[in-house]
Amino acid sequence: MKQKYYKYKLLIPAMVLVGIFVFSKPLQVQIFDEKSDARLSEADTKSGRLVAKSPNSISPGSATSKGDENTTPKASDLIEGVVQKRYYLSNIPNDPYYSSAWYLQSVNAPSSWATTTGSSDITVANIDTGFALSHQDLVDHWKYNQAEFGGGKESDGIDNDSNGYVDDYRGWDFTASGLGDNNPQAGTINPNGIGTSHGTETAGLVGAAGDNGIGTTAVSQNVSIIPLQVIDDNGLGWSDAVANAIIYAVDQNVDVINMSLGTSGDDPIVRQAVDYAYDNNVVVVAAAGNCGNTGTGGVCTGNPTGFITFPASYNRVIAVGATTSTNARASFSSYGQRLDVVAPGSGTIVSPTWTSGNGTSAYASTLYGTSYSSPIVASSVALIRSIRPSSSVDDVRALIMAGASKLGGMGGSFYSTSYGHGILDVNKAISISSDLKLSTEKVPELAQAGGVSAEHTYSTNDTIGSGCEIDPGLWCTVWFRDSATNNERYLPYTKVGVSRKTGWNFNSGVLDSGYWEVRARDGSAVSDTPYTLFRK
């Protein structure tokens, strides 16, 4: 039987031009001495400055005079000649466009940076178009395959790691003939094609280098990225390329996969690869699609308004919709029962880009599409895994969904088909992750109380009560899974108090028709026997 292949497209709305502004050289950030307003050299800022002579210099922490042993030292009591350390405002990177990065504020990323700014030990595979491999904000974050890197191995024509890909030292281009080639560079076929800038822009939102004095930053300021091209410069990509890229990424031991692309229906080839990622504890994040408006063409053709594209529709993938700067659903964003979470994806979002005239320092200033929401979530997953690298896929999914912030458009519900579980809240996910790392996870007890507890059934407008019991100071959420559709719902993660109990009441409308299994969760610890709910 001949295998059917599906065409994949970029998930940016039709008829939207991506604005760019180009710099011929990196932006320079000047540092000033706060008192004298004199410029400090880079060496000065690293070495600090000497303390001026003080007539009463003593060692910090010692008494100021006899008989006053418990007096706290004053600032004037510092030791003469000791080099001071310069202090900076916390968690504010020095990237020039950070000050206008409203999307980072929307997902509460800056607060999380007090805990972690990410780790280069965590790798995200960005499966997309070609990339600006020499871009100033990305060049230091590409992941190198050490088995194929150094000593001329990058071009020796030998498959040094015996993985079937020759000289794959820095990602791979799966669109080239045969097995592809080792150059996932944008613009090699058609520098004016529609698929030349997208990969760089999504990669920038995954992992633009933070606090490097140029450009912008991603949620995860320190992360490694494997650039995997599956859509060519002309915007064409197919099932085998996408599936092979997923499998390649998993075999390269990545932690996260981002896919800002989609197709119009179930694709068994890619579905099998997604399952392979899940089975190997790789978190997959994908754009939900841009089918939110009636009559949208392309990948939305023939599907109902709001259609969530594939692979985002697969239950083992985090499906991400788009919001505006006012936290409203972007009109183009897909929606429905499979939507998991939303993130900024419309408007003045700044990210690295590629043009035929500038492949090193160009930035997009306006981006529209769930394509750009997805990598923000993927970058956040990388941040989570920088704290708990071995956390399971389901654990991470729970942190993203149960940790999301509720928006006004959700009408007071913990879930809606327009916003999923709400807008990504990076800081809450990181806070919970930090606590989980420091504590011993315990299996919570599910407390199904009120409403339908006696008969396990519910109607459209029932009020359902649910809760969990666990030791004080630990976190708990309640996890609902539809055994037929595999759709999931998570009640908001809550830290349990001294009563050892927490609970929620909600309208049954958040549960679409089906058979739901209900469990309590604390990180990777999940109650064993599910409580069952049936819709009448």
The best one-word shape is globular
Structural class: alpha/beta
Return residue spans where pLDDT drops below 50 for at least 5 consecutive residues.
Answer: 15-79, 84-90
Radius of gyration: 25 Å
Helical coverage, percent range: 10-25%
Report the total helices: 9
Number of beta-strand segments: 24
Overall pLDDT score: 86
Percentage of residues in strands: 15-25%
Largest sheet: 7 strands, parallel
Oligomer: single chain
- The end-to-end span amounts to 42 Å
**Strand line-up across the major sheet:** 4-5-3-7-9-10-11
Summarize the helices and strands and which ones pair or pack:
Blueprint: E1 7-10, E2 19-22, H1 42-47, H2 102-106, H3 109-112, E3 118-128, E4 172-173, H4 198-207, E5 222-229, E6 237-238, H5 239-251, E7 256-259, E8 261-262, H6 268-279, E9 283-287, E10 317-323, E11 341-344, E12 346-347, E13 351-352, E14 362-368, H7 370-387, H8 393-402, H9 426-438, E15 445-448, E16 457-458, E17 463-469, E18 475-482, E19 488-490, E20 494-495, E21 501-507, E22 515-522, E23 525-526, E24 531-535
Helix pairs in contact: 4-7, 5-6, 7-9
In short:
This protein has 536 residues and is an alpha/beta fold. Helices cover 17% and strands 21% of the residues. The chain is globular and about 65 Å long.
Give me some keywords for this one.
536 residues, 9 helices, 21% strand
How does this structure look, described?
- By secondary structure, the protein is α/β, with parallel strands linked by helices.
- It has helices spanning 42-47, 102-106, 109-112, 198-207, 239-251, 268-279, 370-387, 393-402, 426-438; strands at residues 7-10, 19-22, 118-128, 172-173, 222-229, 237-238, 256-259, 261-262, 283-287, 317-323, 341-344, 346-347, 351-352, 362-368, 445-448, 457-458, 463-469, 475-482, 488-490, 494-495, 501-507, 515-522, 525-526, 531-535.
- Strands 4-5-3-7-9-10-11 form a seven-stranded parallel sheet, sandwiched between helices. Strands 16, 18, 19, 20, 22, 23 and 24 form a seven-stranded mixed sheet that branches. Strands 2, 12, 13 and 14 form a four-stranded antiparallel sheet that branches.
- Strand 22 and strand 23 form a beta hairpin.
- It is globular and about 65 Å long.
- 49% of the residues are buried.
- The model is unreliable at 15-79 and 84-90 (pLDDT under 50).
